[in-house]
Design goal:
heterodimer; A: alpha+beta; five-stranded mixed β-sheet; 2 helices; B: alpha+beta; Helix Hairpins; Heat Shock Protein 90; 2 domains; two-stranded antiparallel ribbon; 8 helices; 54% helix
Amino acid sequence: MTQMTEPGTHFLYPSTLFACREPYIVNTILGSCVAVCLYDTVWKFGGINHYMLPFWNGQGLASPKFGNIAINKLLEKMLVLGSNQKNIIAKVFGGGNILEGSTSQFMIGDRNVAVARDMLMELKIQIVSQSVGGTLGRKIQFNIATGEVKQRMIDKQPVANGNTEIVIHNLDKYNLFVK
Amino acid sequence: MNKLKDEELIEELRIRMKEKTDALNELKTLNEKLKVVNKKLEESEAMKTHFISNITNEIVNPFASILGLSKNILSVNKENWKKVFSMVAMIHTEAFSLDFQLKNVFATAKIEAGEIYPEIGKVDIKNLVKSVTDSFRIEAQKKKVSFELVFDFPESEGSTFQFKTDPEKLKLILSNIVNNALKYSFKDSKITVTVWSEMRVMFISVFNHGEVISDEYKQLIFDRFERIDSNITSVNRGHGLGLSIISSLLDLLGGTISLQSDKETGTTFTIEIPEFSEEEDSFKSSLNGNEIFFEDNQVF
């Protein structure tokens, strides 16, 4: 039997999710969005989502653009792939409040994080680690096979043409870990 | 502990009273919001039920027509072979509508499963727009609606305008807009598709003469299953997914859609799509397997 040495890589777009039992490295970039990584500690595989808004309010398609849908769909997929909910742990990233001039009512980042916390608690899935909030964006890399997540803080600024300009920051200056 | 003066006591009570009132008011607002959301979800559920019966018709009817027509063709006598042309045209129309409906349903399923990704390529926009409007030509002829295409690109772009985006998704977006425009056009009218670009952002507007979309509907029509005339006797076919698919696909491409509608000028849908950025692309690829990007102390 040959051992797979090079795991595949996948770039996770907003409003999508990814879970599989093959070893994969998943990259994604988060601003006010939140990514919930679920990991099965028994079968040693995981899944990740990337949602932009906390709740689906009945407008548009019921896609994983919304936290409540994205978390349920990801868990559903993990269960379909053979997980037992009891063996799943979670890591939560993102939810920065990167848009300037945002008032407390429009703190999308905070509200996105709150949805993850509330829903995971309700689902009795433990959040073992997290890096949330702050004013910077995050670039994260999730290793599906080990459950390990690497992170880099970034300045993600929307520029005029709708694309994003990404500036890599010196990490020593920022320490936004939440214990 | 000091004894509180009466004034201080009253002041304290007043503050607490205010806090409570504020909290109560906030709760009221939240409750109101919850009611609205609840109503929306109920509506959505009802429409989902309606949708299933609707989509069954959308799929079963064209199939029945195709089967019936092809059977007829098989039994046509040699001397009547000219009849075959019109029947083949009908088969084409039915198959085309079936194909379009299915594409939309599959796109919806993919979007709702969170398994849709942009597949970027260099796209010849002129060609793409032409192929979309061409595909609706037969349908348009039935309604005596004609298409007018206006391409307004900078001189430097030459005759072919290449744009980095996802061709299949753009096709589906445009097909849905054109399909709507056609559906709600008056007979003997013209649909104008205008394409232009500014600073690596592409604009496509689709203009038609037809019934005016009221302000109250302008928001609603982007919801799934929502149709302007969703009653059973409606002459217009469709599943009401079109605009919500457009919105989701545009999200994926980083684009937006806007809508203008009034009696004098007609209805215009305009989409705005930024060119897929090279930097983001290279940033992404350089990350794949590149450990230097990450610091040791940022491992979770």
